[in-house]
C-alpha cells in the first residue's frame, strides 16, 4: 500500500461477506446433497440395504433330520444314531487353506489318509458353504484345544452331528446294509432341497431300500453370525421331521444263532416265516463291521476286506449263485407229478447209472451201487439221482422251466431286499442266445438233479421251500414288518404279484411234503441223523453241489482234495410239517455232504425257533451227522 493511503475496511468487509456467503452456499449445497443421499439410503433404498445387511449378519442354515431307527421284531435296536464331534472346514471362509491345514495338523492327530480324503472331497462337486469334515470322533482334549485357538482359524468349526451306528454290526451288516457319505453320483439324483445339510445316505440293504422313509424331512434355522461367519445365536428355527422308525421281521437271536452255527465257515443261512414271507434271519458268513463304512473306511482297512480270500464283503445269501443240487428235487417232484411225467406208483430200477441210449454215456448216481427199486417217495427220501434223471427227460426243459419259474427261480421274487440276484434258470432260448447251441437231452438230465447250467441263491431256495411249506401259496419274502408311527406299511411296501401254484391234484402237495418228511424221519432218509430225537416232525431235503467235475470213472475222495475245491453242502426244509412256522435254506461252501454238515445246522435253527433259544453260555448242539452222505 502506498504511503499515506488509508486501509479500506468497508471494502474488505464486503469482500469477506461475499466470500462467507459463497462458502455458506457451498456448505449448504454439500449438506443438502448429504441429506439427500442419507434420505435415499435410509428411506428410499431402506429395504434393499436392510436385506443386504441381514444377509451378512443373518444366514439360513439347513438342519438335517435325525435318521429313523431300525429294530428287530422284538424291538431290539439294530441301527441307531450317536453324536460324534468332528472338525470341519468351510472352504469359502478359509483364507489360506494350506496354512490352516498345517495349523490343524499341529493341534490334532490327523493321518495322511484323512488329509487325502479331505483333498478329494475338496475337489468334488458340493453345495456352496458346505462343511467338509477333516477328522471325526474328536475327544474332549482335542475339542478344548480347538476352542482355545478358535480365533486363529476362520472357517474352522467343531461340528456335532448324529452318525449312524450299528451295535450288532457283523451280525446285521449284510441284511441292514450301511449308510455312507453322499458321493458325486448320488448328489445328482437326490432332492437337493430335502438333502440340504444331510451328509449320509443309504448305500445298501435296508438302509438303501427304505432311504426315503428313514431320511425324514429337512429343517431350517436363521442364525446371526459375526464378521468371521461364526454363529452367535439362533433367531428362528423350523425343526426337521425325523425319519420313520421301522421294525423288521428279523429276529436278532436267530440271526446270531445262524452266525454261530456256521462257526467261521463260509456260507449262508436264510430263515423265512412261511405265513407272512417275513425274513427271520439273513446270515452271510463271514461278515464285516459296517460301522467302518459310515464315516469313510480307510484304504488299508478296505484293502484287507476286499482282498480277503474269504470275501467278507460278498453277500452270499443274496448274491451267491450256486448249483442247487438235490435241494431242487422236491420242486421237480411237484412238476413231474402235475405234468404226468411220473405217478405216485411208478417205480424204477436204479443200478447206479443212467443212459439216455443203450451203450451211451452213463450218468452216475451218488450211491455207487444204486438204490434198487424206488418210487418217488423213496427217490426224494434217499435222493435217488436215477429217478430224477428219467423224470427230467420225460418232462423236458420247457416243463421244468415253467414249474421252476412258478417257484421263484430265475427272478428276484423279494419285495424289499436290495441287491438280490436272480440266479439262472436255463431254457432253450437262453442256451441258444448265450451258447449258440440247441438244448440237448443231456442238459435236461443235469437239470434233473439241480446241476448243469442251473444256479440259485440261498434266498431263492428258501423262498421256493416256503412256497412248498404253504402248499403252493405265495408270500413274497420281505424284511419290513411294520412302521413305528401313524404311517401304514402298505404305503411303502411293494405289492406282490405271484399267483398261487394250482395243481391238477392238490393232494400232490401233501405227497411231496411227506416225501420230504421221510428225508428227516424215514429209516433210509438222507438227513435222518439230523432229525433224531426231535419232538416235532420236519420236512427237508439235503443237497451237494460239485465245485468241479469228476472224470467218468473217477472216485470222489474228500481228504485228497483241497478244502476250497470240496463240494458245497446244502439243505432246505421247514417245520413243523403240518403247521409250518419256519422255512430254512443252508449252504456251507466246501462243507462236503448236505446231510452231515448243512442238515444239523437247519435242525438247530428249527429247535431254537420252535422250542426256545439256547441260554447264554449253554453249549450249542447241532445234531448228529449220522445218515447218508448226500
From TrEMBL:
GO molecular function: penicillin binding; peptidoglycan L,D-transpeptidase activity; serine-type D-Ala-D-Ala carboxypeptidase activity; zinc ion binding
Residues in Penicillin-binding protein transpeptidase domain copies: 267-606
Chain ranges of the Penicillin-binding protein dimerisation domain: 64-234
EC number of this enzyme: 3.4.16.4
Gene Ontology biological-process annotations: cell wall organization; peptidoglycan biosynthetic process; proteolysis; regulation of cell shape
SUPFAM superfamilies on file: beta-lactamase/transpeptidase-like, Penicillin binding protein dimerisation domain
Catalytic activity: Preferential cleavage: (Ac)2-L-Lys-D-Ala-|-D-Ala. Also transpeptidation of peptidyl-alanyl moieties that are N-acyl substituents of D-alanine
Membrane topology: Single-pass membrane protein
Cofactors required: Zn(2+)
Co-factor binding details: Binds one Zn(2+) ion per subunit.
Keywords tagged on the record: Carboxypeptidase, Cell inner membrane, Cell membrane, Cell shape, Cell wall biogenesis/degradation, Hydrolase, Membrane, Metal-binding, Peptidoglycan synthesis, Protease, Transmembrane, Transmembrane helix, Zinc
Cited InterPro entries: Beta-lactam/transpept, Beta-lactam/transpept-like, PBP_dimer, PBP_dimer_sf, PCN-bd_Tpept, Penicillin-binding_protein_2
Active site positions: 326
Any Gene Ontology CC annotation: plasma membrane
Source organism, top-level taxon: Bacteria
Pfam families cross-referenced by the UniProt entry: PBP_dimer (PF03717), Transpeptidase (PF00905)
Keyword match Membrane: yes
Main localization category: membrane
Pathway as given in its UniProt record: Cell wall biogenesis; peptidoglycan biosynthesis
Family assignment from sequence similarity: Belongs to the transpeptidase family. MrdA subfamily.
Protein name, entry field: Peptidoglycan D,D-transpeptidase MrdA
Lineage of origin: Bacteria, Pseudomonadati, Pseudomonadota, Gammaproteobacteria, Pseudomonadales
Amino acid at each position: 500500500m502506498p504511503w499515506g493511503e488509508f486501509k479500506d475496511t468497508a471494502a474488505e468487509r464486503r469482500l469477506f461477506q461475499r466470500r462467507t456467503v459463497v462458502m455458506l452456499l457451498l456448505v449448504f449445497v454439500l449438506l443438502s446433497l448429504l441429506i439427500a443421499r442419507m434420505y435415499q439410503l435410509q428411506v428410499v433404498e431402506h429395504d434393499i440395504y436392510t436385506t443386504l445387511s441381514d444377509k451378512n449378519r443373518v444366514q439360513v442354515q439347513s438342519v438335517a433330520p435325525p435318521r429313523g431307527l431300525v429294530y428287530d421284531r422284538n424291538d431290539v435296536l439294530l441301527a441307531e444314531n450317536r453324536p460324534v464331534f468332528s472338525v470341519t472346514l468351510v472352504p469359502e471362509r478359509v483364507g489360506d487353506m494350506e496354512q490352516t491345514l498345517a495349523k490343524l495338523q499341529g493341534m490334532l492327530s490327523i493321518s495322511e489318509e484323512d488329509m487325502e480324503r479331505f483333498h478329494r472331497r475338496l475337489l468334488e462337486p458340493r453345495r456352496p458353504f458346505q462343511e467338509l469334515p477333516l477328522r471325526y470322533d474328536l475327544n474332549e482334549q482335542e475339542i478344548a484345544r480347538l476352542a482355545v485357538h478358535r480365533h486363529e482359524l476362520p472357517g474352522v468349526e467343531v461340528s456335532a452331528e448324529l452318525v449312524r451306528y450299528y451295535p450288532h454290526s457283523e451280525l446285521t451288516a449284510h441284511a441292514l446294509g450301511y449308510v455312507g457319505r453322499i458321493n458325486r453320483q448320488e448328489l445328482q439324483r437326490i432332492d437337493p432341497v430335502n438333502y440340504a445339510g444331510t451328509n449320509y445316505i443309504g448305500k445298501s440293504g435296508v438302509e438303501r431300500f427304505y432311504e426315503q422313509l428313514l431320511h425324514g424331512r429337512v429343517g431350517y434355522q436363521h442364525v446371526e453370525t459375526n464378521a468371521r461367519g461364526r454363529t452367535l445365536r439362533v433367531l428362528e428355527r423350523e425343526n426337521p421331521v425325523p425319519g420313520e422308525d421301522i421294525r423288521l421281521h428279523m429276529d436278532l437271536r436267530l440271526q446270531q444263532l445262524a452266525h454261530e452255527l456256521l462257526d467261521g465257515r463260509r456260507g449262508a443261512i436264510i430263515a423265512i416265516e412261511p405265513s407272512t414271507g417275513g425274513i427271520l434271519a439273513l446270515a452271510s458268513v463271514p461278515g464285516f463291521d459296517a460301522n467302518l463304512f459310515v464315516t469313510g473306511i480307510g484304504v488299508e482297512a478296505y484293502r484287507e476286506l476286499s482282498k480277503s480270500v474269504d470275501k467278507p464283503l460278498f453277500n452270499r445269501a443274496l448274491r451267491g449263485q450256486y448249483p442247487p443240487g438235490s435241494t431242487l428235487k422236491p420242486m421237480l417232484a411237484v412238476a413231474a407229478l402235475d405234468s404226468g411225467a411220473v405217478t405216485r406208483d411208478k417205480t424204477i430200477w436204479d443200478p447206479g447209472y443212467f443212459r439216455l441210449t443203450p451203450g451211451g454215456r452213463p450218468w452216475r448216481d451218488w450211491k455207487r451201487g444204486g438204490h434198487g427199486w424206488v418210487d418217488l417217495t423213496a427217490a426224494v427220501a434217499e435222493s435217488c439221482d436215477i429217478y430224477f434223471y428219467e423224470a427230467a427227460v420225460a418232462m423236458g426243459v420247457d416243463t421244468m422251466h415253467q414249474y421252476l419259474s412258478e417257484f421263484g427261480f430265475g427272478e428276484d421274487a423279494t419285495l424289499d431286499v436290495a441287491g438280490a440276484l436272480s440266479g439262472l434258470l436255463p431254457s432253450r432260448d437262453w442256451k441258444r442266445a448265450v451258447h449258440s447251441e440247441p438244448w440237448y437231452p443231456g442238459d435236461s438230465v443235469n437239470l434233473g438233479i439241480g446241476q448243469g447250467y442251473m444256479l440259485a441263491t440261498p434266498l431263492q431256495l428258501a423262498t421256493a421251500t416256503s412256497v412248498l411249506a404253504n402248499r403252493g401259496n405265495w408270500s413274497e419274502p420281505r424284511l419290513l414288518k411294520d412302521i413305528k408311527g401313524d404311517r401304514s406299511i402298505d404305503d411303502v411296501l411293494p405289492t406282490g404279484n405271484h399267483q398261487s401254484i394250482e395243481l391238477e391234484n392238490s393232494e400232490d402237495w401233501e405227497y411231496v411234503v411227506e416225501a420230504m418228511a421221510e428225508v428227516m424221519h424215514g429209516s433210509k432218509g438222507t438227513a435222518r441223523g439230523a432229525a433224531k430225537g426231535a419232538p416235532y416232525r420236519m420236512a427237508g431235503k439235503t443237497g451237494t453241489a460239485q465245485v468241479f467235475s469228476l472224470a467218468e470213472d473217477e472216485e470222489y475222495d474228500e481228504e485228497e482234495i483241497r478244502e476250497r475245491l470240496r463240494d458245497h453242502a446244502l439243505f432246505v426244509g421247514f417245520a413243523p410239517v403240518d403247521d409250518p412256522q419256519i422255512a430254512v435254506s443252508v449252504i456251507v461252501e466246501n462243507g462236503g455232504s448236505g446231510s452231515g454238515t448243512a442238515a444239523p445246522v437247519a435242525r438247530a435253527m428249527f429247535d431254537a425257533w420252535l422250542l426256545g433259544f439256547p441260554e447264554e453260555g449253554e453249549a450249542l448242539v447241532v445234531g448228529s451227522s449220522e445218515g447218508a452222505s448226500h
